[in-house]
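Lecture 7 notes: from sequence to structure.

We start with a single chain of 87 residues. Read the sequence below before looking at the structure.
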Amino acid sequence: MLLWSLVSVNILMELLIIIAGMWAYVKNKSLPALILALALFCFTLTHFTFLYPPAFVSRITLSLRLMSYFGELIALVLLLRSTKKRR
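Now the structure, written as tokens:
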């Protein structure tokens, strides 16, 4: 029961961060914020592996995590490029 409550708090916090990223994109037209929100959405989907077909759980989880890691990397590169342009 404790594990489920910790997972649900984790999912709730991730959803709040996704909403904040979408809000930052709408307000500031920040592409890195949108990419980070989508990457975190892919990472959040890995918590729901019990909904996936058993034969593909590891493949789906791995692909979602890789998509989220690459999304975070792309957002980081975009943020670093935008800070260099401001200097």
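DSSP finds three helices and no strands in the chain. Keep this in mind for problem set 3.
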